[in-house]
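Subject: Sanity check before I submit

Could someone independently write out the structure tokens for this chain? I want to compare against mine line by line before I put it in a report. The sequence has 61 residues.
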Amino acid sequence: MPDYEVKVKFHIFPYRKFKIGAKNEEEAREIATDQAQHIIDTLDFSITDIKAKKYLMDKFL
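---
Independent answer below. Compare away.
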């Protein structure tokens, strides 16, 4: 199976602010963690380049 070199570009914002309604700091932390996990799960990316690695024939002989 040939090896490939793939370049992936992630479209990431440096930070994001949320306005959260919570009863206390612990609940706010849980909601923020859920929001951050959702962003990670739906992270946008694009594949910019795919190329097969080249090998010297001497390696196979």
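---
OP: Matches mine. For the report I'm noting this point. Helices lie at 25-41.
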